[in-house]
Amino acid sequence: MCGIVGVVGNSNATDILIQGLEKLEYRGYDSAGIFVANAGDASLVKSVGRIADLSAKIDENVQGTAGIGHTRWATHGKPTENNAHPHRSETGRFVLVHNGVIENYLEIKENYLEGHHLLGQTDTEIAVHLIGKFVEEEGLSVLEAFKKALHIIEGSYAFALLDSENPDLIYVAKNKSPLLVGLGEGYNMVCSDAMAMIRETNQFMEIHDKELVLVAKDSIEVQDYEGNPVERESYTAELDLSDIGKGTYPYYMLKEIDEQPTVMRKLIQAYTDENNQVVVDPEIIKAVQEADRLYILAAGTSYHAGFATKRMLEELTDTPVELGISSEWGYKMPLLSKKPMFILISQSGETADSRQVLVKANAMGIPSLTVTNVPGSTLSREASYTMLLHAGPEIAVASTKAYTAQIATLAFLAKAVGQANGNEAAKNFDLVHELSIVAQNIESTLSEKDLIDDKVRGLLETTRNAFYIGRGQDYYVAMEASLKLKEISYIQCEGFAAGELKHGTISLIEDGTPVIALLSSDEVLASHTRGNISEVIARGAKVLTIVEENVAKEDDDIVLTQVHPYLSPISMVVPTQLIAYFATLHRGLDVDKPRNLAKSVTVE
Ligand code: F6R
Hints:
Largest sheet: 8 strands, antiparallel
Strand content: 15-25%
Structural class: alpha/beta
Bound molecules: fructose -6-phosphate
Number of strands: 25
CATH topology of the largest domain: Glutamine Phosphoribosylpyrophosphate, subunit 1, domain 1
Distance between the termini: 10 Å
Oligomer: single chain
CATH architecture of the largest domain: 4-Layer Sandwich
Shape: globular
Radius of gyration: 25 Å
Helix content: 25-40%
């Protein structure tokens, strides 16, 4: 949701913080700030808007050997300078950055902070006032004060705290919000996302919930809230600085759309052996075989990827699949089958809604599999099993390559389980071959960018609304395609089951309303969708068709090579990603950073 960076023991603290915050920009934010200090001096700089606005306020006097920085995405209080982090205690001695939501902040204010002067409306400011009070009014040491505050604070948080009188130590703690320690040479760092530090190091150390960490320039001390020491090994992150650059691309989204054929091939490498046989962890296969029902839980695009795999998983594993929206199930679990297994799909592996479901599933003893792009992410650590997407960092807020990688990864699971069960369809499903065809097919779609750009210009440049329609799996792709279009171009767009139009929605069709119809290879479904296309044309709609070649007609707009029906959502979605991209460009908007959205949604 928002980002944290901290560094101790490096005289370039200001640069490290700014560069780290720039790497976190993709997560979405509306204000930012840094605090840097050395033995005698300290500076706090904050700004509403972009990191570039913050940098413009920083001069050569803003220097230090330690510092903390933050990008904020407003939750409590508007995006203003006073609400931007870092926040200071009453006397200004303590400085804090925070991700998450402190649920009892108003109670804390009422019970502990009478007479304190708060500059903004944030829950974070209350936390740092509380810590300052315990040191300055009650005489506790900083560590005791921090611990005491952590015992009082309820909710989700990742905290990084600096004492400006002794800036050679960052006090860190987390609960439900991601935070990592980064190990430099002669200095150390903290961050909410490894990407913020990958320029400096690829050595990281996890922090678990309800742990407190003292980060000094040459030591890391982890303890629980009672003060018991915790042993923790560091690990090497398989991230490369070049993975997170835009290269010659104008936008990350376009780069990530273009990377999809490579991702498909990487997945083939990751999930096959030297004889081209599909290989999935036997423990995962066994867990799926033992389940009487698979429950896929996810949010947004990842939820749509779940739908796109439902038929394949059911047919190949002979196990019913049910889907749930994480933010709904986190509060109320429906009646479950006798032997459920949960599959959590999450690009980031940090989505708070999905984590809430996982915490409940773990408490109920339900086996779980996380399908994620981020090794070591919270959902990966806390689930029984993990399958990785191997898609490389996804920076653009609008998810593209993660969606297609999620479907492909679950295809490997479906194939492996089905084969182990002796399912005939699974045995005959030559996934490696079929996925190679998909990769080639995506490549030909990508070579038609100019055509798609042209079609979009006339259709979506000025419209206020639009519709995607399709039947069967095309309906699931329509859901994802419409999310992609609305989240970045701000066109109000809905994805509909084509047959449902006549039950209400068709009343919205008027002269010039754009309707994009998806018709993959199923001839019966395609012929019914053709009927629905005629109905909307008769009411004035402007129709664009995306079809697979075996059901194509002469005047179809975008014709794709036919792929295996289980994998058609992967190839059908790519033109819709490009449609969203070009529509957004033509409307003069920032493709990678849509308003109000964050890349990783770590609040519920
Ligand atoms: C849309 C998008 C979101 C995410 C959703 C879940 O383009 O990216 O809808 O899919 O916030 O995020 P993850 O997959 O990280 O759990």
